[in-house]
Amino acid sequence: MATLSATSLTHLLGEWRGTGPALRALADRIRLLLLDGRITSGTRLPAERELAAALGVSRTTVAAAYARLRESGHLTSVRGSGSVAALPAASVPRPAGPRAPVEIDLTRAALPGAPEVLDAARRAAADLPAHLPGVGYDLVGLPALRSAIADRYTGRGLPTRPEEVLVTLGAQHAVGLLCRTLTVPGDRVLVESPGYPHALDAVRGAGGRPVAVPVVAASAARPGGWDADALEEAFSAARPAVAYLMPGFHNPTGAVMPAAQRRRLVELARRHGTRLVVDETTNDLGIDAATPPPFPADVVHVGSAAKTMWGGLRIGWLRADAATVRHLAAHRSPWELGTPVLDQLVVAEVLPRLDEVLVARRAELRARRDALLDELAGRLPEWELPVVPGGLALWVHLGAALSSPLALAARRHGVHVSAGPRFGVDGAFERYLRLPFGADPDTLREAARRLARAWGEVRSEVPLAPSFEVLV
Ligand SMILES: Cc1ncc(COP(=O)(O)O)c(C=O)c1O
């Protein structure tokens, strides 16, 4: 059972105190950490006395906070194991169904399925009989899909053979497989901060030690992007085994890495013997900017059907040299036994026509992004809204370190958002909030109205500190 020390929990809690009773603030903040995944269900929390000492509060306060969490089902007492964090069934976000839920879930940066998926699924089902005589366990990918993916890289200017493509269970699976296979516990792995939280989970899950490079969202006040000096420093000081970056419409900032910096990144990785992995999951989601080109052939590319076609198709892939692809395929079996054939057939149907699909996707993203920006600008003028050329989310600067209290207050208004610290390597970003714009414009406008009400509540509790720049 995973155990969280009092020091680690104190670090995760950050500035947890509000103006209300300490026991309530502490319970609320632990609940948020659990709901947004920073504490995983089943983790043993520190003993009351240790946590009280680390936080500088009385043991009664911690005991009362734990009691509150027990009442709400977020903590269970296990004989011999102390207090164990738990996720009550009701707090798992419900998947969007045919009946529109009253709650608005802005924790996921994704669009609904593209209409083309339905026809493709019908054609894929018609193709299935050709595959049924086989056993269906597929560790590398169907030849037709590997070819279609290879053709797309070749069309983008990176000549690719099907043997250089491995089809996976989504991009997240590809990232996890790369981390487990290309690193050994204790290796340093360069990551972005803020970054995609599940990639960071994958790095840590493989025993890697993250080395963070800051990324800033562009705004009217400043250009965004990767901190060039920090990038140089991270390579030369840490000599990471793997560097994982999202250079095209980075999640959550929407930043796009300029061509000169991409070249420098490749040079640095080559010089320091680092395996460079670029995650292109959101690369095709340019709204005001074109799809960035591929990297050279020695860079591992990760891709996915989840954002362009549908997240319900659990299909992703990676492009690497053929020997690495074989090596990775050989290491899949301890965790899973292959990619579903039917889903692969669907993606193979859509992929050759992806550019047509993307025209509609980009128009959809533009309308959604602009609706959210417009409503936020009208209702929350003190927030610094980013300039987002593409991707699926706004990384909003709140002007005050209130992201976690805001996320909690927003839940009371029926809006689920992930607080900024979920996207940092070390729990920073309490001044930021990620707002995905994958929902329809009316829902996003309603979410912004509710967020404004929630913000009014948290602002009335804590006075605004003067805004200053934080680079973490
Ligand atoms: C950068 C990045 N990588 C990977 C993923 C996961 O992709 P998939 O659904 O294909 O596993 C996401 C999803 O949000 C993402 O933003």
Keywords summarizing the entry:
3 domains; DNA binding; alpha/beta; 8-stranded mixed sheet; Aspartate Aminotransferase, domain 2; Aspartate Aminotransferase, domain 1; Arc Repressor Mutant, subunit A; 14 strands; binds pyridoxal-5'-phosphate; WH_DNA-bd_sf
Question: What's the architecture of the largest domain in CATH terms?
Answer: 3-Layer(aba) Sandwich
- Report helical residue fraction: 40-55%
State the low-pLDDT regions, or none. 466-472
Percent in strands: 5-15%
Organism: Kineococcus radiotolerans (strain ATCC BAA-149 / DSM 14245 / SRS30216)
Protein name: Transcriptional regulator, GntR family
Pfam families: Aminotran_1_2, GntR
Keywords: DNA-binding, Pyridoxal phosphate, Transcription, Transcription regulation
